[in-house]
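FAQ: What does a ligand-bound record look like?

Like this one, built around NAP:
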Amino acid sequence: MGATGATGNALLHSLLALGAPVRALTRTPHKPIPGLSGATRPPLEVQYADATDPHSLRTAFEGAGQLFLAMANSPAQVALETRVVDIAADSGIEHIVKISAPAAEPDSPVAVSRGHHAVEEHLRRLGMNRTILYPYAFMQNLLRLAPAVAQGAILGAMGEAACNYIDCRDIGDVAAAALTRPDIAGGTYTLTGPEAVSHPELARRIGVLIGHQIRYVNLTPDELRENLIRRAHMPAWLADHVTEIQQLAVARPETPTGTVSQILGRPPRTLDAFLHENRDRFRR
Ligand SMILES: NC(=O)c1ccc[n+]([C@@H]2O[C@H](COP(=O)([O-])OP(=O)(O)OC[C@H]3O[C@@H](n4cnc5c(N)ncnc54)[C@H](OP(=O)(O)O)[C@@H]3O)[C@@H](O)[C@H]2O)c1
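The answer part, i.e. the structure of the complex:
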């Protein structure tokens, strides 16, 4: 699922590179799937599936043995993922690879992570074979900073706390390993890039890359939340989520794990390589 999304699309390309048969599910078939061009042919199928439409899920899961589940964050996420899991189990799917998030615990300070925990518990109760991936912040999210970079300042509420940024292509490669390698399937994996980087350091590196100094402006959590709602026009639940994630990084300092290297036998992609590859996106 989520073939148009950050991790689902990365996985799709990882599976195609391996020559594995894959059914890419999208709820908007008229919208191009990034990286695919022209008519699709085996081992790739593209099919409509919307988590709000149970019939489409049943049709999409016919004959499939495994499911990758990544769903956009929303207030409906737990209900939608729970429905997807139930229909997958009824359809004979035997293994689910689920994208969860750090701090997926019943009393997590991050509401979205509490939701992930609820879905994981549902999978456990059903007794399904499951691989759970706990990636830290996606490098691809940083592209959303481009408008702020254009104005010369990045805002945040995490002071000097560092983030374990990971490139979604590494998440895709690990998910592909879980779907194609019995030694990886069924595990739980915390996924990070090779280094944790703070917001001030991120601003410095982007500044060097584009040849303009970029400031980091540290706000209080309340100021950040207000800013996201009033200036970035985020819905309140999403502003809460961004603020909670930043507070989590302050409360629980992030350090890289070696999980990506252990599974893939190569180091994870670096933040510098990602920024360099995308430098034109940050240029004014
Ligand atoms: N971003 C991070 O830094 C981060 C870190 C750790 C964990 N996570 C977790 O990663 C997950 C998101 O993964 P992602 O970034 O790959 O998501 P994403 O880029 O936001 O993509 C979400 C995918 O879900 C699809 N989708 C949304 N509603 C759907 C529905 N009703 N039926 C079927 N498909 C639907 C979207 O399709 P459309 O293209 O049609 O909208 C899209 O393909 C979240 O659960 C989040 O908690 C994120």
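Follow-up question: can I read anything off the structure? Yes, for example: The beta strands are 22-26, 44-48, 66-69, 95-99, 129-135, 153-156, 162-163, 188-191, 197-198, 215-218.
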